[in-house]
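User: Predict the structure for this protein chain, please.
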Amino acid sequence: MISIPDPNSVTRVADWVELSISVANSSLSRTALTSALEMSGGNEPSETLIASVWHELERRQHLYSRPLYRVEDRTVERETDEQPPEYLACLLLSLYGVQGDTQLPPKLFERLTCEAVRYYLSGLATVFGWPFDPEDRESVEEEQQELQIKRKIRRLAEDLGERFVEAPLSPFKKDRGIDIVGWIPFREKRSGQVVVLLQCAAGHNWVIKRPVPLDAWREYIHWGCCPIIAFSIPCIISERDWHDTSKDNGILFDRVRIVNLLSEGIRDQALNQDLSTWVQQQLANLED
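Assistant: Here is the predicted structure, written as structure tokens:
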């Protein structure tokens, strides 16, 4: 049986139900959930906890744009025979984070988010965050890191047609909280366009992440129009926390939005293959 990391958390238990019916049994009853929670926590769960998990699953069911599962009074049933890798990858990260058995290949979640941002904007997007692309790693060893980040920001400004001013002076600033940059260019490629500066958090510590330092980025690049900040996580944010999280971190790309945006499939075939391989490896580890 796939382990339940936190049998007292409504959101984590709901994640576990989604994963369980996706890769193990095609359905799960309230009675089976009660037994699984008792095995994981050592105590029989309260009816309030079970009811809250059911309510959360019903809420999520209506948020997803395609039918992934169906919530009935006593059971939850999978709607499709095969679930998309982006959905399963987000579930695994939401449940188990990026440590231990779910060690994430470099930038895989950033690449997934970048694909979703392209769909959302119907524009362009690039993975920006540290560490940089493989072809840049030699120069990181040969040159000071502050020169490397300066080149990266200058290149970004040139790609967007915006005006580069300066880079962070401290090498410890690295990417300054930016993992992905998305934009909607005009045909003539002048400055003054929609720009999204997005931070990703694939681990469980996303709550303590600081928002993108937009004031600092206004000093590094003189934008024609002020960028929009955004935040991406593989979890589903609760109704209670949604508004405040959005106010603090900008446009949110949680699991629901990522899965919905990619409902027609991932166009990047290399990304699709990498996600599928990683998901299968993690599921095999969980079954050992």
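The first helix runs from residue 10 to 23.
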